[in-house]
Amino acid sequence: MSTRKDKFTNKDCLYMELALDLAKARQGHTGSNPSVGCVIVKDDKIISIGQTSLNGRPHAEFNAINSSPENLKDSKLYVTLEPCSHQGVTPPCTNKIIKSRIGEVIYSVNDIDKRVNGKTKKIFKSKKIIVKSGLLENKIREFYAPYFFNKENKLPYVTGKIAISKNNLIYSKNQKNITNKLSNKFTHLLRFENDSIIISYKTLNIDNPKLSCRLKNLYKFSPIRIILDNKLQMNQKSYLFKTANKKNTIIFYNEAEKLKILKFKLKKIQLIKSKITKDKKFDIKIIMKKLYNLGCRNILIEGGNELTKNFINTKSFNQFYLFKSQKKLSKLVKYKEFNSLNILKKNYKNMTKINSNFGKDKVTLYKN
After folding, report:
1. Tens of pLDDT along the chain (368 residues)?
2. Is 216 exposed, middle or buried (0-12, 13-18, 19+ CB in 10 A)?
3. How many helices (H) and strands (E) does the chain have?
4. Is-contact 110 137, C-beta < 8 A?
5. What is the pTM for the complete model shown?
C-alpha cells in the first residue's frame, strides 16, 4: 500500500462500485480463489467488464481484457483486489495488463497472498503504468473478510443462521414456517453465497429439507450438503439421501454398522470418519480443517439447538444471523426453545440490527 493517500473522483468511486457488484455476484463460487470484479474505462466510457470465472479461473482482469471490443491502449482498469503477479495455474494478470498497454490501474486492497502482497505496484511502476490503491478500501476489505480469514487461518469462513419465534421457539409441531417470505428469500441467498451447508441428521430427520437455493435461475449454485451423523441414522427415505452423490453430499460419522456403511457407499456418498469429544459431539475444529482441505471456503450452518450451540460454544461462527419472527408458537404441543441466546450474546458482542428489508421479522447479525 502506498504511504501517500491516492486521490479519487466520484467517477472513480462509481466504477469501483460496479467492480464490487461484479465480485459480489460470484461470491462463494470461485473455489479457493477470491471473487474479483474488474471494469475497464476509456475516454470516460465503460468498454469492458470481467469477473472471476466460476471455480476461480480465468481471473477477472483476464476476462475483462479478453472481452474488450476496443484497443486498450491508455485505458483505465478498476479492480477490487490487487492483480496477481505470480505464475500459478495461469500466467500472472500483471503480464496480461502490461501487454494490453493499459495506462492506469486502480485497485482497492492488497491481496493477502504472500506471493502477491504489495508486489504489483512496483511491477506496474517499472513499466510506467500509473497505479493507485485504496479506493473504497473499508467497504471492499469487509467484502474480502471471508477470503482473508481463509488465507490467514487455513479454515472455512462460517456463517450461522437460525430462526426463532417471538417467544423464542425454533420448533413447534404443526407449525413449519416461522419467518416470512422475505426472510426465507434471504436464507436462499445465503445458500447461494456459500459453497457448503451443514446440518445434523436430527434436523434432516425432522424437517426432510432440500438445502437447495431456490431463487430464480440459481438452483445450480446450491451448496454441497454436509451432514453430521455419528451412527448414520439419517432417514434413507429422505430427499437428501435419495438425491445424494459423491459430488453433492458429504457425511461425517464416527461409528456405524457395516451394513449401513455399505448402503451409503453404494450411493457413492462421501463418508468421512471423524473423532468425537468426551460428550459425544463431533470435534468442530477437526471437521473444519478437513472441509478446508476438501476445498470448502464458505460454509453455512442451518442447524437446530444442539449443532448451533456447539458452534457458538466453540466460537466457530465468524458471523451469525438471528431471525426473530413476530409470530408466537404454541407450547401446547411438542416444541423446542432456542437455549443459546445468552451464550451467543456473550461470545459475539459485535451486534448489528438489519431490519430494513425483512418486513416484520427482526434480523440481528452477530460477529466475533
Report:
1. 444 578 999 999 999 999 999 999 999 999 999 999 999 999 999 999 999 999 899 999 999 999 999 999 999 999 999 999 977 777 899 999 999 999 999 999 999 999 999 899 999 999 999 999 999 999 999 999 999 999 999 999 999 999 999 999 998 988 878 999 999 999 999 999 999 999 999 999 999 999 999 999 999 999 999 999 999 999 999 999 999 999 999 999 999 999 999 999 999 899 999 999 888 899 999 999 999 999 999 999 999 999 999 999 999 999 999 999 999 999 989 999 999 999 999 999 999 998 778 999 999 999 98
2. exposed
3. 13, 16
4. no
5. 0.93
61, 82, 193, 302: the active-site residue: 61
Q: How far apart are CA 208 and CA 334, in angstroms?
A: 18
Total residue length of the chain = 368
CA torsion through residues 233, 266, 283, 291, sign? negative
For residue 11, count CB atoms less than 10 angstroms from its CB and return exposed for 0-12, middle for 13-18, buried for 19 or more.
exposed
- The backbone region for 69, taken as left when phi is positive above 0, alpha when psi lies in -120 to 50, beta otherwise, is alpha
What are the backbone angles phi and psi of residue 119, rounded to the nearest 5°? Answer: -85, -25
142 in active site: no
